[in-house]
């Protein structure tokens, strides 16, 4: 069975990844595909935080077919991996759709414009490896203090990696984190379409989004995050300082509408944003905290209503009125001339 090796440079990448064949140099960020035309067409992530526990759900959409998929994720120690709920993502998209407002145009464009589970083994170098089966996922958790041992294990087990990652692995291990190496295999032998979501749950006093591995990406990385909490959330530590963060949505949503547990009465507060990260620009993980207030935000899409016909009709009416007046004046003048008798003064 041909191996499809996909190494996601963080927990949650959100846009299409560029795929290259096996002979190319392996990179833990980006993707590596072996003799397959398949590609990760999209990745969307949901962070849910109740004040003490965070869950991260990630779902990938595969364009085409492949045999296996694999990626690498730094996670806090004690993270539990389970299957996520694939039905929540369409609901998130619906809940964050732009508000449509109409704008009226009274002038014709004339064509100039557009509408717009668990077994364990101890390895040399203080590396502990535990493996769990989570539905179609095989999750290997690498814990310890030796980043070189992590790199060696990943390389021995078919994951794209390189020595440059050692420094970032060392940062995570020093903070007590682990490295999850995940493989997804289809029982039917082929993976395609929307893949099963993987959920990671861990205790934390503030939401975090591990993404430092994206610094080693070969291509631009798109990130889209949905954050569910009791209040509006703000980025307290940027992954790439100076890069523009585009807000998508902020507002209260009925928990039932998303299929989630309520955090404030019957509601949750949903915050969403997107960002494009350039390779070499990522210096830290995202961290989040409560925003200064719960002011809502929603994008606006303007729908142009063409009322140029009103202008055209008005112009026609004006022209007709002017013509009638001109004709009437001409007729009157003509009548005066026809009734004038020489020697008599004109009126």
> How many DSSP H or I helices?
5
Radius of gyration: 31 Å
Q: Characterize the biggest β-sheet.
A: 9 strands, mixed
Strand content: 35-45%
Helix coverage percent: 10-25%
Per DSSP E runs of 2 or more residues, the count of β-strands stands at 19
- Label the overall shape: elongated
By helix and strand content, what is the structural category? alpha+beta
Task: Please outline what is shown here.
With 347 residues, the protein is of the alpha+beta class.
Layout of helices and strands:
Layout: E1 39-49, E2 53-66, E3 68-76, E4 80-83, H1 88-95, E5 99-105, E6 119-123, E7 127-134, E8 137-143, H2 147-156, H3 166-174, E9 177-185, E10 191-194, E11 198-203, E12 208-209, E13 221-229, E14 233-237, E15 245-254, H4 255-258, E16 267-277, E17 286-290, E18 297-298, E19 300-306, H5 308-338
Parallel strand pairs: 1-13, 5-19
Antiparallel strand pairs: 1-2, 2-10, 2-11, 3-9, 4-11, 6-7, 7-8, 8-9, 12-17, 13-16, 14-17, 15-16, 15-18
Helix pairs in contact: 2-3
What features would you highlight for this structure?
5-stranded antiparallel β-sheet; alpha+beta; 2 domains; elongated; 9-stranded mixed β-sheet; 347 residues; 18% helix
Explain how this protein is built.
The strands form four sheets. Strands 1, 2, 4, 10, 11, 13, 15, 16 and 18 form a nine-stranded mixed beta sheet that branches. The chain folds into two domains: 39-100 and 117-303; 306-338. The relative contact order is 0.19. With 347 residues, the chain is α+β, with helices and mostly antiparallel strands. Strand 1 (39-49) and strand 2 (53-66) form a beta hairpin. Helix 2 crosses helix 3 (166-174). The protein contains five helices and 19 strands. The termini are far apart.
């Amino acid at each position: 069975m041909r191996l499809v090796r996909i190494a996601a440079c963080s927990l949650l990448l959100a846009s299409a990844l560029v795929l290259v064949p096996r002979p190319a140099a392996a990179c833990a960020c980006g993707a590596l595909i072996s003799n397959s035309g398949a590609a990760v067409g999209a990745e969307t992530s949901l962070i849910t935080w109740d004040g003490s526990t965070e869950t991260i759900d990630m779902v990938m959409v595969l364009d085409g077919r492949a045999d296996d998929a694999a990626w690498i994720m730094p996670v806090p120690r004690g993270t539990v991996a389970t299957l996520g709920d694939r039905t929540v993502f369409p609901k998130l998209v619906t809940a964050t759709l732009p508000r449509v407002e109409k704008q009226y145009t009274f002038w014709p464009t004339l064509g100039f414009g557009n509408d717009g589970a668990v077994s364990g083994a101890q390895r040399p170098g203080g590396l502990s490896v535990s493996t769990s089966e989570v539905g179609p996922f095989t999750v290997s958790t690498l814990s310890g203090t030796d980043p070189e041992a992590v790199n060696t294990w990943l390389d021995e087990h078919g994951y794209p990696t390189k020595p440059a990652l050692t420094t970032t692995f060392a940062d995570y291990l020093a903070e007590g984190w682990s490295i999850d190496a995940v493989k997804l295999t289809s029982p039917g032998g082929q993976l395609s379409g929307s893949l099963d979501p993987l959920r990671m749950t861990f205790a934390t006093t503030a939401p975090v989004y591990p993404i430092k591995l994206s610094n080693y990406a070969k291509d631009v990385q798109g990130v889209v995050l949905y954050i569910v909490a009791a209040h509006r959330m703000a980025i307290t530590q940027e992954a790439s300082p100076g890069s523009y963060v585009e807000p998508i949505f902020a507002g209260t949503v009925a928990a039932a509408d998303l299929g989630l547990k309520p955090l404030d009465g019957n509601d949750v507060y949903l915050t969403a944003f997107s960002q494009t990260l350039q390779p070499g620009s990522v210096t830290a993980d995202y961290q989040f905290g409560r925003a200064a207030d719960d002011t809502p935000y929603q994008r606006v899409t303007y729908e142009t209503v063409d009322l140029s016909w009103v202008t055209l009709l008005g112009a026609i009416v004006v022209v007709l009125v002017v013509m009638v007046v001109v004709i009437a004046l001409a007729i009157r003048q003509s009548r005066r001339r026809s009734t004038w008798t020489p020697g008599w003064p004109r009126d």
